[in-house]
Write a structure and sequence with these properties.
By secondary structure, the protein is of the alpha+beta class. A hairpin with a 2-residue loop joins strand 9 and strand 10. Helix 9 runs antiparallel to helix 11. The radius of gyration is 32 Å and the shape is elongated. The longest helix has 24 residues. Helices cover 47% and strands 12% of the residues.
Length: 589
């Protein structure tokens, strides 16, 4: 998994380098050649603009340190919230002094940023900048970069080379002055410092591992920290082994770690989708055009035509199998499901499959979910993945992360649907019936898919199947027909047959359907001859399928078949279809 992230960085992020990172920068400050403020410009959208090659300071926990060139407004301009804690303001001043001193030192060998050093030493100019930012309603935590006399310091080789040299010297100095750490286990360490010959988990090369790893950002919405989270962290004695400290317990070199972190940060920013309280990032070994990305169909099915997503997937699958898209056929896809937990990145799931397998699984997913629309006329549109997840919950925001992860793996690995999820879907189906809400297409498709993926001959069809062998399915059809008969005879009577009797009929049909069947005679007497005869034929046809097999009770699977029979009969009634609609499926599609 980590190796694939490193490979992604090497292929797609040529600028990945230790000591540098990509930041979302919100403001650009323009200076004159003599170090006076010219303008303050917002960058990108409300969140800012992605800026690569920003110097990243190490050992920020030491206190009083600041990043070089690109920093927050709180550090550079001393912009603070009203009534800010005086200790925090004092800390910002200390960091600003550090920032200014670094710029001053760099300006000695890089004259291009001499105006920037002069600006930072001029308290009046800094105050003007702070006032301009306050007028723009900027946030203290926004990031800022510079344009000095029309030049971007981040593009100046001598500036970046100074930072590389300063960083290397400071790291050596830090190792020389390193003090023993407290709070560790009492056991005698095996090494005074991590051996330089440790094998890197990412490259297999012998090297000196990094002590701490850069942070992954972008997980604050799924349990992560706003300041970032680490992929490999060992901040407690119980996490450490063999006397090693911190990230030495998972030995990785500085360069591959930087590539791994940059890759994941880039994927989170550009190729991720939130799913419940998790984030799914995915990518391909070889670049794929957006119109050829089957995962895009899964999340956002095209809506130009009915069943457009499935048709698009099938066309792509056919081109792979006939050799028309040989390059894609040899491709692979990778997907990670992430969340944050106490400052650490939690990897909930990892997938590594061939591109053709991915396309085939998504085609199977849409095929299994295929269900007649509630009006009975056509197949319902392909559902978005999150619509399927939400079909088992009262509200999508209540969807637990493990449930979303399970359905994600079900969809992309072709696995059976766990029965507890169908129990939830069935509960929501009953609740909506009682509340007289519209049928949920994704929910009905999920119940149908459950039987297909379970295996066995369940004779599942998107449309009504009058010859279905299960008595539970036929009992559902019977209740739908009796409900239609009541509406035809009595009109809108408020709480009808379904609202009053569905739960009992779907669980104990032997005790309920007989009573409803007997009452149907009274309803038939209220209809004219033609409509009465039609309902009699409908009821007789269904009873001929059930015969004397009305079950006394139904288990969960049988209750699900009952629900499908009820729904598909209702859809057929609404469409006016009185024949086995399996024969017309192709024409409708």
């Amino acid at each position: 998994m980590l190796n694939e992230l490193v490979r992604y960085a090497q292929t797609n992020l040529a600028g990945s380098e230790p000591g540098f990172t990509t930041r979302t920068v919100r403001w650009l400050v323009e200076l004159t050649p003599d170090g006076c403020l010219v303008n303050v410009l917002p960058l990108g959208d409300d969140k800012g603009e992605q800026t690569p090659k920003c110097p990243e300071m190490h050992n920020m926990n030491a206190g009083g340190r600041a990043h070089f060139l690109v920093e927050t407004l709180q550090t550079v301009a001393l912009l603070s919230k009203p009534n800010e804690d005086p200790k925090k303001v004092a800390g910002s001043r200390e960091k600003q002094a550090f920032f200014s001193e670094m710029v001053r030192q760099a300006s000695v060998v890089a004259p291009a940023i001499q105006p920037m050093a002069s600006f930072l030493e001029n308290a009046e100019q800094v105050e003007i900048l702070r006032g301009r930012l306050a007028a723009e309603k900027a946030k203290p935590t926004d990031w800022l970069r510079w344009r000095v006399a029309g030049i971007d310091p981040l593009q100046q080789t001598e500036v970046l080379n100074w930072w590389r040299s300063w960083r290397e010297a400071d790291q050596i100095k830090g190792k020389t002055n390193e003090k023993p750490k407290r709070g560790k286990a009492a056991a005698q360490p095996l090494f005074d410092s991590p051996p330089a010959g440790m094998v890197c988990f990412l490259t297999g090369e012998a090297l000196e591992p990094v002590a701490t790893q850069p942070k992954i950002t972008g997980l604050s919405g799924v349990g992560g920290l706003g300041t970032g989270d680490v992929m490999a962290g060992f901040d407690k004695a119980a996490f450490c082994s063999f006397g090693l400290e911190q990230a030495s317990n998972a030995a990785m070199g500085e360069k591959p770690v930087r590539e791994c972190v940059d890759a994941l940060n880039h994927l989170i920013k550009n190729h991720s989708r939130k799913m419940a309280n998790t984030l799914v990032v995915h990518w391909f070994k070889e670049a794929v055009r957006p119109e050829d990305d089957p995962l895009a169909f899964l999340f956002e099915p095209p809506e130009l035509t009915e069943a457009a997503a499935q048709n698009s997937v099938r066309q792509l699958l056919a081109s792979l199998r006939t050799g028309q898209r040989a390059v894609l056929g040899n491709n692979r896809y990778y997907a990670m499901t992430l969340s944050g937990a106490a400052g650490r990145v939690m990897v909930r799931d990892w997938m590594d499959r061939s591109f053709e397998d991915l396309v085939a699984r998504i085609d199977q997913w849409f095929s299994d979910l295929e269900i007649v629309a509630r009006d009975g006329g056509k197949i319902a549109p392909d559902p978005k993945f999150l619509a399927v997840c939400g079909s088992i919950m009262r509200d999508l925001k209540d969807l637990p992360a493990p449930t979303a992860t399970t359905l994600w793996r079900v969809a992309l690995a072709g696995l059976p649907i766990p029965q507890p999820l169908i129990a939830q879907a069935l509960a929501r189906f009953r609740a909506d019936l009682i509340d007289d809400k519209s049928f949920n297409h994704a929910r009905m498709g999920l119940i149908k898919a459950y039987f297909i993926r379970k295996g066995g001959d369940h004779q599942m069809s998107a449309y009504l199947n009058k010859e279905h062998p299960e008595a539970a399915y036929q009992c559902g059809r019977l209740l739908a027909t009796l409900a239609g008969l009541q509406r035809s005879a009595l009109g809108d009577v408020g709480a009808g047959v379904v609202q009053r009797y569905y739960v009992a009929a779907s669980q104990t049909p032997g005790l309920t359907l007989g009573r409803l069947f007997n009452n149907a005679k009274n309803h038939l007497n209220k209809l004219d001859g033609g409509l009465a005869y039609w309902y009699e034929d409908q009821i007789s046809e269904i009873m001929s399928r059930i015969q004397d097999r009305i079950p006394s009770t139904l288990n969960l699977d049988q209750q699900s078949l009952f629900a499908l029979g009820y729904y598909q009969q209702m859809a057929a009634n609404r469409a006016g279809k009185n024949t086995d609609t399996n024969e017309t499926t192709k024409g409708d599609k």
